[in-house]
């Protein structure tokens, strides 16, 4: 009957709305935020835990809404990645990083900047063009840049990723394996991709004191990194006893709330300048 058909159409409409409207809304909001450049780099210092000197920082994105509300990446990175907006977001972050850190980091060529990339960046040569077009001829040199590839999600094409990393190396950039020990690639990534730096995930740092397994994994990663000539950085260090354990294990670089959380540009520059004695 007409009534059943009408009900069907209404129901279909509701189902259609339910599935498509929320996506369209998020997309609009995200695109608008990109156009307004609301995605800001925050910077977390990376410290040398033997000398107390600052070694550089990791760039961590924050969505700073017009009302001042600060949103962490957990709430939007999945969408940024699946929608493909992460490419433009990353370009904006790299440009802002160049502008904000260029003066201080240009004067301190020993300081490094770590930039998070996602698996798709290692499947698309555009990332190389982006890096060159943003950093070529600027105050921050290529050998101050570290690109992080997470082990948490699989790479689609290892061979392609390996080639992109090789070209990053030709520029003078280095590559860190993020979240090491938590994900898909395992130790194979270390060897196949040409990784320069291993980042030990917070999970192991947290469990190190109570769990022999976690402590052993840290030992193995340190030994592996040493014998393969790779750098090593501990993530998410919150307490003095963790720092002490890391020192005993021969880890020299760490980041975490014990030093500072990710900070907005101005605050990070102030802290870094103070640490550099300026
Ligand atoms: P990640 O790269 O493993 O970054 C470390 C996360 O741990 C950051 O969370 C950081 O704020 C947090 N953290 C640092 N020190 C401590 C600590 O001592 N204690 C605790 N509890 N947490 C600490 P955040 O900033 O929320 O970022 C989460 C993840 O989002 C990052 O994990 C990274 O995978 C991703 N992400 C962040 N920024 C970007 C970006 O610009 N691009 C891409 N592709 N991913 C990003
Ligand atoms: Ca990271
Ligand atoms: Ca990490
Ligand atoms: Ca992590």
Automatic annotation (TrEMBL):
Membrane topology: Multi-pass membrane protein
Enzyme Commission identifier(s): 3.1.4.52
Keyword RNA-binding tagged: no
Superkingdom as given in the UniProt entry: Bacteria
Enzyme class, broadest EC rank: hydrolase
Example of a GO MF term: cyclic-guanylate-specific phosphodiesterase activity
Gene Ontology CC, one term: plasma membrane
Compartment(s) where it occurs, according to its Swiss-Prot or TrEMBL record: Cell membrane
Protein name (Swiss-Prot/TrEMBL): cyclic-guanylate-specific phosphodiesterase
Domain EAL as annotated: residue spans: 23-276
Organism encoding this protein: Methyloraptor flagellatus
Keywords for the protein's UniProt record, in alphabetical order: c-di-GMP, Cell membrane, Hydrolase, Membrane, Transmembrane, Transmembrane helix
Keyword Protein biosynthesis included in the entry's annotation: no
Catalytic activity: 3',3'-c-di-GMP + H2O = 5'-phosphoguanylyl(3'->5')guanosine + H(+)
């Amino acid at each position: 009957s007409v009534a059943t058909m009408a009900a069907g159409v209404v129901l279909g409409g509701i189902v259609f709305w339910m599935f498509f409207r929320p996506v369209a809304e998020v997309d609009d909001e995200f695109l608008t935020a990109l156009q307004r450049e609301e995605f800001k780099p925050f910077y977390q210092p990376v410290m040398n835990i033997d000398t107390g000197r600052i070694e550089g920082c990791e760039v961590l994105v924050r969505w700073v809404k017009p009302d001042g509300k600060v949103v962490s990446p957990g709430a939007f990175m999945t969408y940024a990645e699946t929608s493909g907006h992460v490419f433009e977001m990353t370009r904006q972050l790299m440009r802002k990083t160049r502008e904000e850190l260029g003066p201080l980091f240009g004067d301190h060529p020993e300081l490094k900047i770590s930039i998070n990339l996602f698996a798709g960046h290692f499947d698309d040569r555009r990332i190389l063009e982006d890096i060159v077009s943003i950093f070529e001829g600027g105050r921050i040199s290529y050998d101050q840049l570290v690109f992080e590839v997470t082990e948490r999600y699989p790479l689609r094409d290892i061979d392609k990723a390996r080639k992109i990393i090789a070209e990053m190396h030709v520029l003078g950039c280095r590559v860190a394996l993020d979240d090491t020990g938590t994900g898909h690639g395992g130790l194979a990534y270390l060897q196949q991709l040409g990784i320069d730096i291993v980042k030990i995930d917070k999970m192991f740092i947290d469990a190190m004191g109570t769990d022999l397994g976690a402590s052993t994994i840290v030992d193995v990663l340190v030994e592996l990194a040493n014998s393969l000539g790779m750098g090593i950085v501990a993530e998410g260090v919150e307490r003095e006893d963790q720092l002490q354990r890391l020192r005993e294990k021969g880890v020299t670089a760490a980041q975490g709330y014990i030093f500072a959380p990710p900070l907005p540009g101005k605050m990070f520059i102030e802290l870094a300048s103070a640490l550099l004695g300026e």
